[in-house]
Amino acid sequence: MSDKEPKPFNKIRNIFWPIHRSELSKFVPISALMFCVIFNQNVLRILKDSILISEVSAEITSFSKVYVVTPMAAIFVIAYAKLINHLPIHKIFYYLAALFTGFYIIFAFIIYPNIDFFHMDRQTLAHLMENHPHLKWYIATIGNWSYVIFYSFSELWPNIFYILMFWQIANEITNTNEAKRFYTLFSLFGNSSLILVGFMMMNLSSDNSVINKLFTVSDSKITLIQVSVAMVTVASILSCLLVRYISKNFSSTYSNMPVGRIDKSTRPKMGIIESFKYIARSKYLWLMLICSASFGLSMNLVEAVWKAKIKELYPTVNSYAEFNSLYILWTGVAIMVMTIIGNNVMRKSSWFAAAVISPIIILITGTIFFILVVFDDHIMNFFDGAILMSPLALAVFVGAIQNILSKGSKYSILDTSSQMLYIPLDQELRTKGKAAVDVISPKIGKSASGLVQSMIFTILPMATYNSIAAPLMFIFIVVCVLWIYAIRKVYFEYQKIV
């Protein structure tokens, strides 16, 4: 930035573009990497719900999160803690990208087009579920195994590739001063991919899509999955190329390392058991784990009920995906607006002021949604025709607003502010500690919610999300209040370290 620029211009530029020209060679490739990773994340988010919920039901998601996603996350953390001692981060990224993308290709082009061959016979499955009502969702989980595994891999993608891998790469080459200016702008550029994903997936999901016009399509839902996975594959390859460029040009110099910290090359590497013991002694990481788990728990309580409502309104794979695409598009808009707000809040106010925005938004909007679901008849009678939507359409609309605002604040403000907490930590906590918090904690939150729901559905086979919305609302409010308290505590710990 030139000294000749007038001061008012400097101030405006600092608000909207606080990046120096000499920093663009670092800023641009990391932003592009974030764009590709989040592009895939949101394509997969649309597909995983559209496939599992439309092909089976919303209730099965609770069982998938508890009995499949969480064990897979735990296995990954153990494997990652071992790999990080022997391989550089960029090679781990390549191997994991190949593993995930390979499965998506097999599912889209081999399993899904021949689903009757790979899955249990539908009549047999229905017969088993009918004869064993208390076990019907466990039977459904096994009987629809490929949908569940696709859902589980897609659930893990954001935690492994975005929260863990991307931010670890960014943290390794970015110092604290740069982070305050870079991180929210990473979010701005990276999350702009949501708008692109929304437009593309809406077109692919609609009956008048470009694919249907150009080719004779026998089954539109199979074509939707195959084209979407092809896009994911291309973005994964680009991600690997960007990681290769970053690893070659920006070595991990730890320029932000506090005086007195033991250098990575001189400190002996810890084994898996020693690493987790070391992490378990960190109050700082435990508070971060609680904060991260609280988001997963609170959002899953709302989303479970909301997604059941969406299936009622949009019962097919393509119609569900088209609605999800519209929701993703508006989430991208919300993220970009909130990123500009969050960037200035973080620079001009405290970390706590930025981090507490998300739980407050989620608490307020989630409570409104639950009230609408639990007291829908009373609300419709009270307004007596003033509301032009049906109760179902209104619930889906309000749930969408809740999710757009909540995810918007989470991905623009909460994620970037949370990642700053790792920068002053030592190498062991920044790698293995980060893996434990970033991968396990969101799944702990979702699994805790899923466990409660799955137990209810097991004990009461006839229960639905509509019938259990009231107790879920109570749990939701308690979790949000505890989340705000945990953010306050971790802020005090952060101040001590910095």
Automatic annotation (TrEMBL):
- Main location per UniProt? membrane
The places in or outside the cell where this protein is found are: Cell membrane; Membrane
Q: Which residues form the signal peptide?
A: none
Tell me what topology the record assigns in the membrane.
Answer: Multi-pass membrane protein
Q: Which residues cross the membrane?
A: 67-85, 92-112, 145-170, 182-202, 222-243, 284-306, 326-345, 352-375, 387-405, 468-487
InterPro entries to which the protein is assigned, alphabetical: ADP_ATP_car_bac_type (IPR004667)
**Sorted alphabetically, which keywords does the UniProt record give?**
ATP-binding, Cell membrane, Membrane, Nucleotide-binding, Transmembrane, Transmembrane helix, Transport
Q: What does this protein do?
A: Provides the rickettsial cell with host ATP in exchange for rickettsial ADP. This is an obligate exchange system. This energy acquiring activity is an important component of rickettsial parasitism.
UniProt record similarity statement: Belongs to the ADP/ATP translocase tlc family.
Query: Under which name does UniProt file this protein?
Result: ADP,ATP carrier protein
**Species per Swiss-Prot/TrEMBL record:** Candidatus Megaera venefica
Species lineage, top-down?
Bacteria, Pseudomonadati, Pseudomonadota, Alphaproteobacteria, Rickettsiales
